[in-house]
Structures are given as C-alpha cells and as structure tokens.
Amino acid sequence: MKNIIVLGATGSIGDSVLSVIKQNKNKLNLLGITFSSNIAKAKNIINEFKLKNVYSDSDESHKSLKHTYENNQELNILREKSELEELLNKDDVDIIVSAISGFSGLESTLMAAKTGKTILLANKESIVVAGEVVLPLAKEHSTEIIPIDSEHNAIFQCLNSNKNTDDVSKIIITASGGPFLNKKISQLSKVTKKEALNHPNWEMGAKITIDSASLVNKCLELIEAKYLFNLNEKFFDLVVHPQSIIHSIVTYTDGSSICQMSNPDMRVPIAHALSVHNKRLSLNFSEIDFSSLKLTFQDIPEDRSGLVNIARNICNLGGSSGTIFNAANEIAVQSFLEEQITFDKIYEVIYRTFDAIPVSKNVDIDTIYETDNETRIEAKKVVKSIS
Ligand code: NAD
Ligand code: MG
C-alpha cells in the first residue's frame, strides 16, 4: 500500500489523483490533503476517504473544518506550517503530490523536496522559479521527482526512466494550441474570459487554462523540461499538435523516435507516476480510436516567437530569470481574469516587466521570494499603465 498526500487536493489535478486512487484502493491510500479554497469539496474528500490529515492555510477553512469535525477524533486538522512539514516527513508517507497552482506551490514543494519521499510534480511553476534550489535540495535528500505534467511524464516514459540522456538527439514537446489555435495575437483583443477559459481538449484550473491559451504554458514547460531532464534548451522543439494525443516525442541518436500517446486525460500520466518503477495500475481510460485517428502538427505561431525566445533565454540564463517571467505572467493572467487588461496585453505585460527587472545570476530561496515580490510590483505598474 502506498500512502499519499495531495498538496492542493481540491483542484483539477487533485480531482484526477483522487480518481486514480479510488480506482486502485487496494494499492493506494489517501493519507492527507492540503487546500486553500473550496471547503465543501475538501469536506467531501475528508468524508469519502475517511481522511486522517488535512491542512489549510486559510483561516476561514480552518475554522469551518474545526467546527464540522469537532467530534471526529480520527482527523488531524493542521494549521501550522511546522505541522504540515511534520506530516510530510512521517514514516508512513510514500508519495507527495505537488498540485498547488502557481508560485504558491513553491513553499510546500520545497518542504516535500527535503523529505526523501517521492514527489509527483504538477506544480511546474516551482521548477520554473526555483529549479536551481528545488532540484539540488531533492538530490541532497534522495527525494525522487516524477513529473505528472503530461508532456514531461511522456518524456520520462519515453526515456524509460533513464537519467542518462547521452543518446538523446531531440525532444519534441507538443502543444494543443488551446482555444485560440491559428489566431494571431492581433486578433485576441476582444476575446472574453469565457472563451479563453474554454480549452478544447483539457479541463484544468483557470490559471493554466489561460496559460494554454496564450502559449505561456508551453514556455513554462520548456523551462521545466530543461531543469527536470538537465538538457540544453537546444534539444527541445515545441510543436503544435491540436489533437493532444501525442504528449511528447524523444528521438534518439540512432534515429528512433519514441512517443507516448493517450487521449487527453491527466489520470493517465498520474497513474503512471503513482506506479513508477512498479507494475502499472489499472485505469478506466478511454481508448484511442486508431481507425479514425488523424494526427496533425504545425509550427508554433510566428508571432509567439518573441515569447518562446524569452523562455529559451531563461533556460540559458538561469538565476532569477524564471522567477521574473513567472511573476510577470501570474500578474498578467490575474489582471486578464479580473478584466483589467485584454487578452492580447498579457504579452505586453510579460515583455515590459521582463525587460524592467534585472536578472541576478546567483539565487537562493530568499532572493527568489524577493524577486517574485519586486516583479509583481513592477508588473502591476505595467498593468496600470495600459488598463
Ligand atoms: P487548480 O486551480 O484547479 O487547483 C489548485 C489547488 O491548489 C486547489 O486545491 C487550491 O485550493 C490549492 N491552493 C492554491 N493555493 C494554495 C495554497 N497557498 N496552499 C494550499 N493549497 C493551495 O489548479 P490545477 O489546474 O489543478 O493545477 C495545479 C498545478 O498543476 C499547476 O501548477 C498547473 O500548472 C499544473 N498542471 C495542471 C494540469 C491540469 O490538467 N489541471 C496539467 C498539467 C500541470
Ligand atoms: Mg502540460
């Protein structure tokens, strides 16, 4: 039996993880969750899984949990970060799923990196902003990081869990193109929030859905892949593949290309990661209909090349550059969702903010938090100047 803690369990990745656990109750056990919002959903999870541990950083959630479960002696309701850290380090914890959205996921990912357990990583932002801290920390504590972002999990599977990439010649990361496939940035000034949140292939949290629509998600994923697989950005190509069936392709030096395929369903990479190094789990998945399958590929749109170039530069620059890019984007996305800027201005906020903040080469966790803060202030100024 593998005991699992899900950080950010009330979100979209949380849903998929819980669904895989439910389908494999004889092998997987949900030991604890953390969440920020959606108390009703958290309570459903607590009841359904007869949960033993729950942590929320929100006062409101904490109060509500204490009230509802005052007679439940079995449930530990945690409030302090030290209590969460203690829980993650307990002997019976095997797997920690990092599924909080955005920069907020960094703190608990760092905690998880120090445990020596297995991390299933969905929170790509923690690697983009702090890959240079999280990965060495994980190595130092023998914590294994298994990606569950579908493209990275696909790469991991195509590499056959092999850490040695000497014989890799190219890795292709696919992008769905999102709801605005084939649209130029200049055509995006009037799109609504509802249109931007309506992803054709994946049902995900709001932030990543907007990132998919802008293609920033693919830029974050390029940076994530560079860190996770420790390869120069030159090894990675980004390609639009609207069907989202092939999640990534690894081409080896002898000319063989291996890809991983599935219908777009996050439970597939999650199920793989939950059984990593063991026999695969069983999942109630929808089969690919190969007889009617048409796979198409196209270049990343020309007018997003500036954005991709920034991401490639970040891969080479390292230091605080990923933190700046991520914070600028988080403010841009939040401003779009709050209807302060139009969709096309997301790019302007990122470009102008990225240019305004100097990159420092050497970072530690304190400088990452400082840079994040400084960048958010600058990005908000840019938003104000154009809204
Ligand atoms: P979501 O918005 O649906 O869920 C986020 C979860 O994090 C919620 O449970 C929320 O309560 C919790 N949360 C937010 N701030 C928190 C905090 N400070 N402390 C504790 N919990 C907090 O997001 P999502 O779509 O599930 O995405 C989660 C992460 O996974 C993101 O980094 C995203 O890029 C990545 N990812 C998601 C998908 C997907 O299909 N949804 C695919 C690949 C990668
Ligand atoms: Mg992805």
Structural write-up:
With 387 residues, the protein is of the alpha/beta class. The chain has 15 helices and 12 strands. The chain has a 7-stranded parallel sheet, with helices on both faces. A hairpin with a 4-residue loop joins strand 10 and strand 11. Helix 14 packs across helix 15 (365-386). Residues 8-14, 34-38, 57, 99-101, 104-105, 122-125, 149, 202, 204-205, 208, 266 line the site of nicotinamide-adenine-dinucleotide.
How many helical elements? 15
Structural class: alpha/beta
Rounded mean pLDDT score: 97
- The fraction of residues assigned to DSSP E strands is 15-25%
Question: Helix-strand pattern, N to C?
Answer: EHEHEHEHEHEHEHEHHHEEEHEHHHH
- The separation of the N and C termini measures 53 Å
- What bound compounds does this protein have? nicotinamide-adenine-dinucleotide, magnesium ion
Number of strands: 12
Radius of gyration: 20 Å
Strand order of the largest sheet: 4-3-2-1-5-6-7
Q: Biggest sheet, open or closed, and with what strands and sense?
A: 7 strands, parallel
Q: What is the overall shape?
A: globular
Helix content: 40-55%
Q: Which spans have pLDDT < 50 for at least 5 consecutive residues?
A: none
